[in-house]
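For reproducibility, we list the full input for the glycine complex.
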Amino acid sequence: MNILVLGSGGREHTFAYKIAQSHRCESLFVAPGNAGTSQIATNVAIAVTDFDAIAAFAIDKNIEMIVVGPEDPLVNGIYDYFKAKDKLKHIAVIGPSKAGATLEGSKERAKEFMMAHGIPTAAYQSFTAQTLEQGQAFLETLQPPYVLKADGLAAGKGVLILDDLNTAKEELATMLQGKFGAASTTVVIEEFLDGIELSVFVLTDGKNYKILPTAKDYKRIGEGDKGLNTGGMGAISPVPFADASFMQKIEDEIVKPTIDGLAKEAIAYTGFVFIGLIKVGDAPKVIEYNVRMGDPETEVVLPRIKTDLVEVFEAVAQQKLDTQELAIDSRAATTVMVVSGGYPEAYEKGKIISGLEAVGDALIFHAGTKEKEGEIVTSGGRVLAVTSFDDDFKQALKKSYQTIEKLHFDRMNFRKDIGFDL
Ligand code: AMP
Ligand code: GLY
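The corresponding predicted structure, in tokenized form, follows.
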């Protein structure tokens, strides 16, 4: 079949890499893609939220499956758009309906869902400009640090963790006055959870599910997890401390109630649930849901899946995921993000990348690259994700770092301590 992947980052290059290997895939397109995806698929210059253009392209090229990378088209209802039209509804959309995507699109909605279905999470209350004073009074009842979350999508910047009560009260006011635009019209204030983070990825057809390999990403720009938040500077899979008994707890207390909750609420969901967790003592608690794969977690999770990914997605679309086996590579995978100097603040683009030919046995997924006059140049903050495997994640990391030594572009930067806390 002909398949279209939506997105342009390392996550989408990884999807394209796995899909291109499938015997079920005839022609593969990526919109808009990057210089990496163009080596294994055909890039198409269509924006991920331009549903009319995506639909016209899908009809023209006889696309039978659309795999949605980022959250924006999901939150904007791409699934519902395709399912509502006679000419489009036969196309499998790998991603949840708009109702399902509210789990990521609204933090307040996600909290209400967790409460309704008994899923462990931090205690919380939510506030609007009309209830600012109650919000500030609620902060006084909490212990620091204070966690303030913009309700809506804020490009990963909408969460503030503050040590000082007065600063927290002021920030609450600023957020409710529109610090993050419409995304912070409602602010969720929640209890701080002290523990170590990990992510669990679940693929579901709305009633059956498969738990994918766990991963842990490293979000801060600086070593020792210091400095500004980024989209993610590296990741490791599996997470060594997520042993069988902890995973069983996660499945029983979080994954099952989440999928059952979606089914009870009659929400169409054919896609990924990314569950951000904190391990508090022995207890897993949900800090957030995302309705797509993580980036750079995808760059370690998908390469560990040995089963044909398109067959798995077909089972999802047909709501037969229970009949599908999922084979996982037992080796560890690591990915290290190579980023532009200055990122996550201002950085320059258009730097020529060299060394891509001599990568050895690492996989290089392009995150922010494009082709220009026959060269591959940087076009984003996160530029390349370098993925390696070995029996032990430390050995795998060594391979990623050895590969990075061969790569070069002006002001290239990366973290040398991925996995430092494991
Ligand atoms: P989120 O966008 O909800 O994933 O939040 C961003 C980051 O803030 C998370 O990855 C955590 O590191 C941190 N965080 C969010 N909520 C909490 C919480 N209740 N307690 C501690 N840390 C949190
Ligand atoms: N790496 C975190 C995310 O994709 O949201």
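Residues 11 and 295 are 5 Å apart (CA to CA). The first strand starts at residue 2 and ends at 7. Both points were considered when choosing residues for closer inspection.
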